[in-house]
Q: What sequence folds into this?
């Protein structure tokens, strides 16, 4: 075969560094979600990816570990949903593939995880998922969430992962709507 | 917050380059699977990751586009299942996040995709999945496949993705067994 690439890398858009630089610890769950939804909104406005963002926080301290945004179209990899970006950046920051080793971590995501990100949550070591827009919201705007079990929240709970759904849901939906209004690509929605 | 990483990268172990260098086109589905299972076996022997490998081929020509192996523990990212590595390397090789754009591509994987990889398949653009060991085989050896719908094959078919399961299944199971016998880590099997 022709020589295949040996390395894959992806990089956040430059604005994320400034955006995430001054975020304080100790925020409430709603405040954490507001940050994530604003990141999703900025990702649409700046046209750096899809209308989704996610972040890993330390649950107890509320410290932000890593903020990610959807980078599928701009970084050229279909796996780069906001959740995957946030989880992998957090694992680099913590220098471990298991965020459940020591301090408890949560994933805060602007829209319910799709099938891929739901699985990724289970392998990541996070012990809580906080989500904004629901699967129904995403589907109503043309985003396929993929082959997910209907009882996904129960599936996570059975793996000792708490779920807090529909935090600031209306604000999260507005970002999805803004993306559609801007004519953003809804990719691979077969 | 402290400065988060801005980039994530991962790299195949060096032996994969040599292993994949001389693989001919035009192989049957069984021959393609045999290559993938041998890569999984090498990944165990050389202790470069878990007992799983996957590859993206052009369906019609049988040309290998990218070979991936599980790199979770050695590269420190929980998302690096063999399928995710192969799909992302193939998207880099083809310079697109959608492997369904032009030539038809398939994912050949030594074990049925877990929940994460099942979702990733849907977003990748591949139009066929060929798998070896089954979910039951993986579970019997302690590997959790995550929150997957029971009718996952139907879910893929409904998205115009063909599934060819249990190709060289016994050979694939032997690699899982070898990993357990070697004392390999079965991570995050809560």
A:
């Amino acid at each position: 075969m022709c020589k295949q690439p040996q390395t894959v890398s992806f990089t956040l858009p430059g604005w994320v560094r400034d955006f995430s630089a001054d975020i304080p610890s100790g925020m409430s769950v709603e405040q954490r979600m507001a940050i994530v939804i604003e990141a999703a909104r900025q990702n649409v406005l700046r046209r750096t990816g899809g209308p989704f963002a996610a972040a890993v926080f330390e649950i107890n301290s509320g410290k932000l570990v890593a903020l990610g945004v959807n980078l599928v179209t701009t970084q050229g990899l279909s796996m780069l949903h906001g959740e995957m970006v946030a989880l992998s950046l957090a694992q680099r920051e913590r220098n471990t593939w298991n965020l459940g080793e020591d301090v408890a971590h949560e994933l805060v995501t602007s829209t319910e995880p799709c099938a891929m990100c739901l699985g990724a949550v289970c392998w990541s070591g996070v012990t809580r998922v906080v989500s904004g827009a629901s699967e129904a919201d995403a589907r109503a705007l043309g985003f396929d969430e993929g082959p997910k079990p209907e009882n996904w929240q129960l599936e996570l709970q059975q793996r000792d992962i708490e779920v807090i759904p529909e935090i600031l849901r209306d604000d999260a939906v507005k970002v999805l709507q803004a993306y559609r209004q801007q004519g953003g690509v809804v990719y691979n929605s077969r």
